[in-house]
Write a structure and sequence with these properties.
The chain has about 160 residues and is an alpha+beta fold. It is built from 5 helices and 7 strands. A hairpin with a 2-residue loop joins strand 3 and strand 4. The radius of gyration is 15 Å and the shape is globular. The structure holds coenzyme A. Coenzyme A binds next to helix 1, strand 4, helix 3 and strand 5.
Length: about 160
């Protein structure tokens, strides 16, 4: 796991789009939004980690109003289910803790096997009444509710 470098950035959208295929296969949507570019992600406050060279996995943590929020985690399906997602997540938790954060939040689908059930196994808990940044992310993602319930989750760091 390493911080994304400038040469990685043009490749990240393709990795995320390949990972999104898992959702497209499950939900069969009429359309699915194109992912943000690596360049856009790198310009946001926070950090952008990748796995592999060239990258096959990405994690993007936004740091805003003092909170650390996992905005995106994606692993190319050709490299899935080998622990890369878990390693990226652990690296994000370690980096957020090193930055003085007490928790890492995320939003995800409640019933998709590689979403909330996966994060529950990795030490995250559902936030029953989200507030602040977490509530704002859920609000922005309301359109995704047509596919499955969305939940906010948190993992306390420094355990
Ligand atoms: C979530 C994701 C990053 C996990 O990456 P990964 O490298 O496969 O993760 P790991 O190898 O650490 O763990 C895999 C676990 O996720 C779950 N999982 C992954 N793909 C799955 C699938 N197609 N069906 C069911 N469970 C799946 C399983 O629990 C699996 O463990 P197992 O292989 O022992 O059964 C990856 O599946 C992905 O990019 N998904 C699409 C994008 C996404 O959902 N991102 C998170 C949005 S909040």
């Amino acid at each position: 796991m390493r911080p994304a470098e400038p040469s990685d950035l043009p490749l990240l959208g393709g990795v995320e789009a390949a990972a999104d295929q898992l959702f497209i296969d499950r939900f069969q949507p009429e359309t699915w939004d194109q992912p943000a570019t690596g360049e856009w992600r790198a310009a946001q406050p926070g950090f952008l980690l990748v796995a592999g060279r060239p990258p096959v996995g990405i994690a993007n943590v936004l740091v805003e109003v003092g909170s650390a929020h996992l905005e995106m985690l994606a692993v190319h399906p050709d490299h899935g289910r080998r622990g890369i997602g878990t390693a990226l997540l652990e690296a994000c938790c370690a980096a957020a803790a090193a930055g003085g954060h007490e928790e890492l939040t995320l939003t995800t689908f409640a019933n998709v096997p590689w979403n909330a059930p996966y994060y529950l196994r990795l030490g995250f808990a559902v936030v029953e009444e989200p507030t602040g940044v977490l509530a704002r992310h859920l609000e922005h993602e309301q359109l995704l509710e047509r596919y499955d319930a969305r939940v906010g989750m948190v993992r306390r760091l420094g355990r």
